[in-house]
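Work Package 4 report. The design task specified in the project plan requires that, given a folded chain encoded as structure tokens, an amino acid be chosen for each position. We show below one input record used in the internal validation round.
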């Protein structure tokens, strides 16, 4: 089973008022999803975000955003540059392919090996 990990792409401190406690200490974080399997490491194009108040430690969902928070979010969303979408094989894949090649070569050698001279 592949493991998923959210890697921080960009983090910004906002000075907008929190809708919950009205303090000016917000943290906006953008994450990119990476998938790690046995045979590959995959970087997806999926970018997510999270807005947290550092004072009251509450997540602030888009439903309760003010226009100022929305403007700042749109600005920072445009500045996010995620890693390109890619898939990279691991060393385990190369070892498995090499073992498969050796097994196929051995079977072919046993089936069609050198002719036996009598």
């Amino acid at each position: 089973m592949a493991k998923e990990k959210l890697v921080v792409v960009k983090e910004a401190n906002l000075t907008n008022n929190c809708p919950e406690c009205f303090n000016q200490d917000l943290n906006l974080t953008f994450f990119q999803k990476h998938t790690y399997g046995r045979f590959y490491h995959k970087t997806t194009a999926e970018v997510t975000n999270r807005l947290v108040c550092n004072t009251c430690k509450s997540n602030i969902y888009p439903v309760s955003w003010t226009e100022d928070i929305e403007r700042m979010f749109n600005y920072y969303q445009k500045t996010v540059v995620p890693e390109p979408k890619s898939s990279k094989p691991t060393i385990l894949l190369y070892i498995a392919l090499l073992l498969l090649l050796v097994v196929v070569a051995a079977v072919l050698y046993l089936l069609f090996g050198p002719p036996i001279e009598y």
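Residues 3-90 form one domain. Validation will be extended to a larger panel in the next phase.
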